[in-house]
Design goal:
There is one protein chain. With 173 residues, the protein is of the alpha+beta class. It is 31% helix and 22% strand. It starts with a strand and ends in a 29-residue tail after the last helix. It has a single domain, classed as Aminopeptidase (3-Layer(aba) Sandwich).
């Protein structure tokens, strides 16, 4: 891999390349959890989502380029906590994905640095993200950059062959 990695603010011309990286990322995550099986119109919905993010003042979308090929992207948002806390705004990293062939060449580091710079320019002091438990590569990347666990997101999936009783208000446990 010759040539320098460039980080740029994404525009509509980058969308096909972002989609390629996203699909590879979804395929990787599908191996970790069947939740990542896409709907038939998943690609179209993601394209519409990305177009909206490019236009949003509360979002920031970067691409990593190698010889004008999109090899990674990072999507950041500004979000709000409920207005009961002193700190109401926070940054949220929705996606950071790099093509497998380009991992471990600093592309993820550069995309993250660009998102952090944007957050700081918006006076954001706290950044959150979610990484899946079984994604060891992702967990290691985020911990390397100082991110630490502070809450657990739990799930339950209901199916007919697993009994699960839920109490109604007023029922006794």
């Amino acid at each position: 891999m010759d040539g320098k990695i460039k980080i740029k603010i994404a525009n509509n011309t980058h969308i096909p390349g972002i989609i390629d990286v996203w699909k590879e990322n979804v395929d990787y995550h599908k191996q970790l959890d069947s939740f990542f099986v896409l709907r038939d119109d998943g690609d179209d919905r993601f394209i519409a989502y990305i177009k909206n993010q490019i236009l949003s003042s509360k979002s920031f979308l970067l691409v990593g380029l190698h010889d004008d090929e999109v090899i990674g992207y990072g999507l950041a948002h500004i979000k709000m906590y409920p207005p009961i806390f002193q700190q109401t705004l926070y940054g949220y990293i929705a996606d950071l994905a790099v093509k497998l062939d380009y991992m471990r060449n600093n592309t993820g580091d550069l995309l993250l640095a660009g998102m952090i710079k944007w957050f700081k320019s918006k006076h954001i002091e706290r950044v959150e993200l979610q990484v899946f438990t079984h994604n060891k590569m992702g967990n290691n990347f985020w911990k390397k950059h100082g991110f630490m666990e502070y809450k657990h997101v739990l799930k339950v999936e209901f199916c007919d062959d697993v009994p699960f009783d839920v109490l109604s208000p007023g029922d006794e446990a």
